[in-house]
Each structure stands twice: as C-alpha cells, then as structure tokens.
C-alpha cells in the first residue's frame, strides 16, 4: 500500500486483532455495491492502489491477505479491538440494508386486491443474515442509509426498511449504473421513509380527484348503460397522478404537457384532467354531432383535446394526442410532438407523459423502440414520464403468465436503466409522492422514469364484457372491494382528518356539476395560444398558386456555399471527388445530378429562414452514397455540415442518422410534423419497403389523421424504389399500398425522375401553404444515371411538373402509340427506343400519381389527337405498382374510344425476383412489349 493509505489503516482501531474478517466482509460488500458501506469506508477502499500495469483496482486476494497479516500483527495497533462478534454483525446489517434496496419491492404491499402473491425473498429477513432477536435492540452503523442518523437500533432500522421499501411503494433502481442517480433516489426515498408530506389542502385535492374519477364513471354507467366507455374504475388514482405530475411540472417550469394514452380511462382523463365539458361528452354518447364538423370523425375514446391547467408555477398547456386502437403506437408520436415544441421554445420545458397498459408495455415492440430512442441525439426530449395502468389483466382475458416472460411488466424499462416505482393504486398519497419523485428525477437527470400504478379493472374489457368467465377469483374479490375513493375517505376519517359528511358533500357537488353540464376541473383555464398557429395552412386546394423561382445568380451563390468546407477538413477521396464535381455544377460547367439538386433545395429553404429536419438510417451520407450532407474528417473523425453554415440568419437544420427502427422513428416524425407545420420534416427509408415495419403509422396517422381527427401534417417520406435486380426487399417501395390509401385528397404520391423535379417537389412542400403528407418513390440508379440530369436554369426558372411530355424531337402527327409511365423505367424505355430508332411511340411521364393530374394529362394528350393506343408500362408485377390502383385515372384522361393496355411483369406474390438473369429477362420483355404497337 502507499504510505498515506497505509498510515490511515494503521491508525484504524477496526483493524485490530480479529476484526480482519469484519473488514474483509465490508470490502466484499463494497465490491458488490459501494453504497452499502459508510462514506468513510468508501473513501478508504476507493484509495486502494492500482495493481501494477493495470488500471483496475487492486485485486481482492492481495487485499484479503493484507487484512489477515494485519490481524496477526497486534503490535501494529495502539487502539483496543472491537468485539469481533458485533463487528461481524455490523457487516450483516449493511447487507440487510442492501438487500432491501435491491429486492424490497418484492415484499411491498402493491396489490389493492391482495391477490398478487410474490415469491418470498429470504434475503429480506434479518434471520437470513444471522441477526437474531437479541440483536434487534443493538445499535449498528447504518452506513449510507439516508435516514439522517449514523447509528440505529436494529429493530428501528428494520421497521424503517419495511416502511421505505415494503409499503405501498416498491422501488426498483439498483439496476442503474450511475452512482449519482442511485444515491439521489436513495436519499429521496430513505430520508422520508417513502412517505410524502401533505397538508389538509393536499388531501382534499386527492380526494376530490378520486371523487371525480368515480363520479364520472358511475354517471356514465347510469345514463348510458351498456355503452362502451373503457372505464377507469379500479385505476381511479390515475387522475391523482396526472394532476400531481402537471402541478409539479408547472412548479419546476414546465410550460406544455403532451399526453399519450390508449382507450382505458381516456374519457375520464378528458373530463377530469383536461377539462373537457361533460355536456360535449354526453352529446357524443347520445349520438349528437355538430353538422359543421368536418371529416369522417372517430369514436369518442380515440379523441384528443387541448386546454390550459393552472399550477402554482403558472398555467401549463395540456394536449392529449389523438390515438387509434393500436395502443402503444401513440408513444413516439407524443415524443416527436414534444421534440418539436422544445425545438421551437429552445428548451426542455415541454413534458411528455405516456400511459401504457400492463400487457401492452411488455408486448408491443414499439415500446422497446421508443425506449431505445430516449437518449439518442435526434430524438431525446429530456426524459418521458411513463405510467403503466396495471390492472393485472391483459387485454380482455389474459393471465400475466401468458403476456410476458418477466416478473414485472415494466422490466423492459431496465434496458435504458430507467428507475421504476411500483405503487398501490388504493393509496393516493403514495401515488402523489411517487408522482412528485418521478418529476424531480426527470428534471434532475433528463431521463425516462416509469410509474407502475398497480390497480384493477372493475368491469370487463368493455362494459359489455363478462370478466367472471375468465377471472372468477379476481372478480369475486373486486365485487367486495370498496372503491379507491371510499378506501381513502374512510382512511382520512379514521385518522381524524375528515368528516364523513365532507366526503359525501364532495360526491354531491361533483354530481351537480355533471347534471348542469359544467366543467369539473378547478384548474382548467381558457386556452391561450401556446402551440404554433395552423391558420395560414387551412382551407387550401392542391392548385393553390406558389412561386418557387429563384434568380439564377442567387442559386449559383447558394450552390457554391453548399459545397464549401474548411481546407483543414480532409475528406475521403471519393467524397472529395463528389464535392469537386458539385462545385463545377454550381458554376454551371456541368449538369446537375440528384444529390446536388436535393442539397440545393434544402439550401434554398434554409437560406430563406425555413427549418428542416431529416432523419433516417443513413440520412447524413445517403444510403446510396449520394447526399453527403455530413462531411466526416478523415484525420480526426470530426464532422462538418455545409448546410448549417450557409449564412448567419439561416433556418435551423436537424439532420440525424436514426436508430434502426421504422415504426417508432416514422411515428416520431409524424408527431413532430403535426406540431411544426413550417418545418420541412423528412423521413427516409433505407430501402423503400422497409416502411412495411411502420405500416400502422401510415394507415392510422398519415393517410387518415386529417379525416378522423382534423390533424394536418406535411411529413415527407423518401422511399427508395426501382428495379435493379436486387431482390424482393431492395426493389419495391410498395407503391400500391400508398395509392390504395389515397382518397379525399389526403396525401401526395410522387415519382420524380429528374434532379430538377426533386428540387421543385421539396421546395413546393414548404412554400405552398398547404400541409399534407408527401410520399416519394425516390430513385436508386437514377442518382448517377447519365440521362437523369438537369440544368441550373431548370431549377431557377421551372416548377414541379405533375406530367412530363415527350422530350425527344418526334413528329406529333406521326405518333401511333403513347406509353404512360413513372420513374426509372422511363429511361429504360427511352434508351431502347433510341437504340431501335422508333419514332411513332411517345413517352409520357406521370410524376404525381395522386392527386392524379387529370387535367394536366388531358392537356398534354391534346398534342396527339389521332392516338388511340395507350400503354401503361411499369416495372412492378401487375398486381402491384400503380396499375390496379390508378388505371381508372388513366382511362379518365385518355379519349373515350381509346384502348389502354398493360405492359409489365406478370402478377406475383413477391415484389421482385431474386436472380439477376431473370430480372434482366423480365425487364427486356416489358420494355419490348411497351414499345410494340399492337
């Protein structure tokens, strides 16, 4: 040992005589958990010298041997030895404390029904550690146990441990590797023995929340018997929890709260937290809907709502996100919306709260995806408060043993080391304490935190269900179980904190408010303008005028800026070549390729003060090595982004390579775009049909969110698409799926074929004051195709063309057949037609398949009044692509007596073949077929 450390050991009476065993056990405890020993011992052990040629602490064996040598050499000490028996017991006491920190939650009284019997943990018994009745009156050092005392009688310590870790709260946090976080939680729990400090006003507030939760459900049950409402009954404390989270958030500076939840308890949250007028809800139950309500609508337990909520720290704006019945998919939508609000506000003063079901949080993969995003640079929001309404029944009838493979449904949260606080739903004061603790933790560490509200479901999955058929014992107990309101009211009466008449008065007051159709939330305030103003984007048609032109000199200047980077930033040779070529493009010396035109579109918008957000699994570089918006220095791995260095007052660019997820990331970007209409928000798939994994987001939010909920968004999806012989998963972006979802002008589906087209398409999405999703079949081989180029003039002076007519110099009156097509196949047709010198077949590109440009196409076809032979040519199999979904549009644009036939691959179960030779054979055949007049 080093001299200073040696002297400190020699001066310690604990090392005298037989105490080496005690010290050795202390050291073992320290190795398992440093917090299990006192700070003085932590300091000594932490200063132990390193093993020679190693950065690790000195091995346990040399330390043990050293302790034993010291024990034999009594002459080294001048202090008397401690009682070795007491010293050994001291270590066991510290181990008992540690056992409760690790596993006390397994003995906590969490289930209001008393049916949840967890396996008994021997380590939580003093006897397991060799501590007997005689020891209970002995005083021991309690180490780092944060009770405010250095020593305690073992009997008092044991009672304190039971109260802290074995009462209505079960805390799991020892899986966290960050010592500061663990110590913080220990100090907050142990210093008050997991008990909140509440006054009479607080308790009245909790009781009023429980009264409201119960009162609404009983009122609806009596007024609309048999109607589906997905009652909160049994989980009534959720209302206490939400209001306490919002209140605590307001005190700590939160300005906005966005909540996401499925249908269980949603109506209760709408009325009793957000302050929706009960009369509006009653009208919905009665089937009354305003005639001027636009759209197809949705069921009442999917609806969202916004309001303001008064807290001691000021008003907080609340938003409950709209949500389909796909349970957990709303979580990344909420978090994306929060990120947008935080970006706009320039701070983390917007709080996401997500509410989960016990089976859903464990069973739905998007939960794992969202947890994984929680600390990723492009998706973090300073922590999400995640609440599990744990009614101990999965969906309709499932036993927990069938819905997960872990002890708790919340174990998934351990993947990001989130603390988990289980709490008994029949103890509202414990619920309030945990809510405050969760908010304080989130604010302190900016990480996710989970609250497991252990409760029950008083009725079946919906009110028409008969739960006794599958959970007979549980529902026999539920029938006898007093409601959470009554449990708490009786407890307050028993503690002489409330009169029975006061509890009854609260019930009557709430029912009177419902009878009068008045708002029932005391904290509700008229909503002021918190979120972005959508007014400029309402009421516009697709053909609204917009001016996308830029002076060519301005475009050249932008082009030079977007390819400039510091000389000290050394690029990879291939990237340096791309940037050298782009400088020539910017100067007008070389035709523009796809990557440069796309970056110019972004630069032009940023230079105009517009914001852009782009995410995807390879978005910085581009999957196909084409974008290179992020330049990686080859000498120091630093990054430089020219698009962020255009001008001093440019718009904000957020460009992130995403986590390896489609569902959660696309849902996040949808949520972001619904909260930020002025930002160009783009999600790029690595390959087009990888979006399959996000189909719920596309079906339930993007394509129908405006019709169901009036929620507009301008999200852009870039889906690489094109048949290059790369097999089923790397060919088709499943164009047919998007076209099948198209109706009521709900979204755009475009297949741009030139760099100028992608430039104008992206600019149009921002400049035009209309916000609807844009689905782009983006190219792969066209990124470097010698024919797929554009000029600076086409960018500066043009606009997006929904339809592009014949580009070669054909005599219009000699044309006998017109081939309609989209995307890459156009260039295959063009090269083959030129090769064979065919002059009687014209090629027409439809660049926007929806909304279908019928008038544009009709106007173009007027050039060929004699043509009656039309062909739709596509690369996709006949049952895929645009043929089945769009042929009625094609027929509406061609003459009534004209003939339309199909040229393409035969119908197939697979999107594409996997053999290059077969792909080439099919490609030659479809091109030849299209270029044959029949």
UniProtKB/TrEMBL annotation:
<dbReference type="InterPro" id="IPR011603">
    <property type="entry name" value="2oxoglutarate_DH_E1"/>
</dbReference>
<dbReference type="GO" id="GO:0005829">
    <property type="term" value="C:cytosol"/>
</dbReference>
<dbReference type="GO" id="GO:0006096">
    <property type="term" value="P:glycolytic process"/>
</dbReference>
<keyword id="KW-0786">Thiamine pyrophosphate</keyword>
<dbReference type="Pfam" id="PF16870">
    <property type="entry name" value="OxoGdeHyase_C"/>
</dbReference>
<protein>
    <recommendedName>
        <fullName>2-oxoglutarate dehydrogenase E1 component</fullName>
        <ecNumber>1.2.4.2</ecNumber>
    </recommendedName>
</protein>
<dbReference type="InterPro" id="IPR031717">
    <property type="entry name" value="ODO-1/KGD_C"/>
</dbReference>
<feature type="domain" description="Transketolase-like pyrimidine-binding">
    <location>
        <begin position="592"/>
        <end position="785"/>
    </location>
</feature>
<dbReference type="GO" id="GO:0004591">
    <property type="term" value="F:oxoglutarate dehydrogenase (succinyl-transferring) activity"/>
</dbReference>
<dbReference type="Pfam" id="PF16078">
    <property type="entry name" value="2-oxogl_dehyd_N"/>
</dbReference>
<dbReference type="InterPro" id="IPR029061">
    <property type="entry name" value="THDP-binding"/>
</dbReference>
<comment type="function">
    <text>E1 component of the 2-oxoglutarate dehydrogenase (OGDH) complex which catalyzes the decarboxylation of 2-oxoglutarate, the first step in the conversion of 2-oxoglutarate to succinyl-CoA and CO(2).</text>
</comment>
<dbReference type="InterPro" id="IPR042179">
    <property type="entry name" value="KGD_C_sf"/>
</dbReference>
<comment type="subunit">
    <text>Homodimer. Part of the 2-oxoglutarate dehydrogenase (OGDH) complex composed of E1 (2-oxoglutarate dehydrogenase), E2 (dihydrolipoamide succinyltransferase) and E3 (dihydrolipoamide dehydrogenase); the complex contains multiple copies of the three enzymatic components (E1, E2 and E3).</text>
</comment>
<dbReference type="GO" id="GO:0006099">
    <property type="term" value="P:tricarboxylic acid cycle"/>
</dbReference>
<dbReference type="GO" id="GO:0045252">
    <property type="term" value="C:oxoglutarate dehydrogenase complex"/>
</dbReference>
<dbReference type="Pfam" id="PF00676">
    <property type="entry name" value="E1_dh"/>
</dbReference>
<keyword id="KW-0324">Glycolysis</keyword>
<keyword id="KW-0560">Oxidoreductase</keyword>
<dbReference type="InterPro" id="IPR005475">
    <property type="entry name" value="Transketolase-like_Pyr-bd"/>
</dbReference>
<dbReference type="Pfam" id="PF02779">
    <property type="entry name" value="Transket_pyr"/>
</dbReference>
<dbReference type="GO" id="GO:0030976">
    <property type="term" value="F:thiamine pyrophosphate binding"/>
</dbReference>
<dbReference type="InterPro" id="IPR032106">
    <property type="entry name" value="2-oxogl_dehyd_N"/>
</dbReference>
<comment type="similarity">
    <text>Belongs to the alpha-ketoglutarate dehydrogenase family.</text>
</comment>
<dbReference type="InterPro" id="IPR001017">
    <property type="entry name" value="DH_E1"/>
</dbReference>
